[in-house]
Amino acid sequence: MSDTEAKIEAQVARLRDLRAGPFAFFDVVSLGSRAVASLELLLRGRSESIHQPRCLVADALSAIGGTEAIGALRRALADSICRDLDPVLRASEGLVIGCIAEHLGRTGRPEIAEDLLAALKVGCFPGCILALGRMRETRAAPLLVRCLYDDVARESAAESLRALGSVAVAELTRTVLEPHLVYGFEGASWKAGRAAAAILLGEIGGPAARAPLLNALSDRSGEVRFAAALALCAQGQEAGASVVPVLVHTLGAEAWTDTEAAKDALLALGEAAWPSIRAIIERRGADEPSERQRRRAIELASRMGQMNPVRTLDLVAADPSSKVRAAAVSALAMLPGDSSTRTLEHFLRDAEPGIRKLAVAALASRGPSILTAFASLLGDSAREVRQEVAGALRQAGPAALPALATALRARPAGVLRYIRASSRALLLWLRLGRGRLADGNSGRTQSPGRGTS
């Protein structure tokens, strides 16, 4: 080895240093084609759990460019995809493959597509998938659809299939409609792949996608049914009654992302979805809705203000689940009007202190007519309710005096609790000179503290 070759090899070897490598990068690139042989040797070296040095080598080869450097990248890709590695090293090697594929894909050369297609036949490498999508390589469509079944490569495959467009529709249709069963069971990755295919079919399939998606609404996999329903809704066509049962059923799912997507779709459907939502709230139908379904249906009812759900929510006051009743109070708080106010008053007598407190908070801003009902709760057995009522009365100011006077005359049970809960408000008003309450029976006035201690 000559002195020049030794210096080049030493310069390239600096790329292996995590600290010095980025600084040595430009020195190596400045060497041009003279450094390609040493760079290829390093890039095709043994797999390691730290991928950055070899990726930096691939970056250097791409920056040098030319037929010789591209040939080195192609040979390194062919070498890397065939390695039999343990899971840790395989993950690291996948990042190196992705880096190489990205650089090769940017060249736009026809022979590169052959290399990337060969790589996908070996495994689902996200870097190769994305490169083929950027190259708009239509021959990759079947391989890309197959990659939807891979949990790691699924997102990259979906992105590339969107780039290919309608050429992938036939393969996506077949994938959606043909479950992969092993001994009558379909694995989670297979179901997730078919669900992703349904979403893609709705995005790029056009009118031809409607029939297979409608067929998928009766699929044995709930994940596929839900994806087909969302795809039909996203197409902007009249999905109507066909998708509502699937979306409504998803309201009971544990996955937050699924339930949020179902709620958005049901809101978009509007009147077409309201009968099914109302049936869940009223607990009608062949199947008993779960607590989670009822709570989310109630939330939807409050957001569908044009459907006037107050009458339906009135029935929830007798629901055995305190979480459902609390959801009804929160929903009614978002609905203005006298009817929702009257319904909320039912919850002031709920068996759960927390729900009574929520009802007080929801009614606090609905005018002086509700203050008399509040004052009767000053003798509530729960301290949190008494405190909430006292706070609401303080916020109301002098408008609360008639309600307090009524409560004093009625002398309800628990009057000592009333004094403790409202003493700060009463003292404040007394100091402001508003402590004389009219006695409606005699026309005389008396101090609110007199005769009540």
Structure overview:
With 453 residues, the protein is an all-alpha fold. Among the domains are: 135 residues; 71 residues, no CATH class. The protein contains 26 helices and two strands. β1 and β2 form a beta hairpin. The longest helix has 21 residues. The chain starts with a helix and ends in a 7-residue tail after the last strand. 42% of the residues are buried.
Seen as an oligomer or otherwise, the chain set is single chain
Mean pLDDT value: 84
Instruction: Report the end-to-end length measured between terminal Cα atoms.
Output: 106 Å
Please provide the count of β strands. 2
Binned strand content: under 5%
Core attributes:
2 strands, elongated, about 0% strand, mainly alpha, single chain, about 450 residues, disordered C terminus, two-stranded antiparallel ribbon
Task: Please provide a brief summary of the model.
With 453 residues, the chain is mainly α. The protein has helices at residues 3-13, 21-30, 36-43, 52-64, 66-81, 87-107, 110-122, 126-134, 141-147, 154-164, 169-177, 188-204, 210-216, 222-234, 244-250, 256-269, 274-281, 291-303, 310-314, 322-333, 338-346, 353-363, 371-376, 383-396, 401-410, 415-431, and strands at 437-438, 445-446. Helix 4 (52-64) packs antiparallel against helix 5 (66-81), helix 11 (169-177) crosses helix 12 and helix 14 crosses helix 15.
